[in-house]
Design a protein that fits this description.
The protein is mainly α. Helix content is 75%, strand content 0%.
């Protein structure tokens, strides 16, 4: 399976879609665990992206 470049905005949009489906009861029990795993993976990717971005910004503007 080919991996595409990570897009924070796309990941957040997918997370919003999953949340909306859950809130509206559009996810059946068979899909629930799969959607939860996907949401957890997207959250992990977003957190990692934010961490790397913060490190880059910190390197550009060192304290002191």
């Amino acid at each position: 399976m080919k991996r595409t470049a990570f897009s924070y905005e796309d990941a957040m949009a997918e997370l919003r879609q999953i949340l909306q489906q859950l809130q509206q009861g559009q996810v059946n029990m068979d899909q629930l665990a799969q959607q939860a795993r996907r949401a957890a993976e997207l959250i992990r990717q977003c957190q990692e992206h934010l961490r790397r971005t913060q490190e880059e910004v910190d390197a550009l503007f060192p304290e002191g």
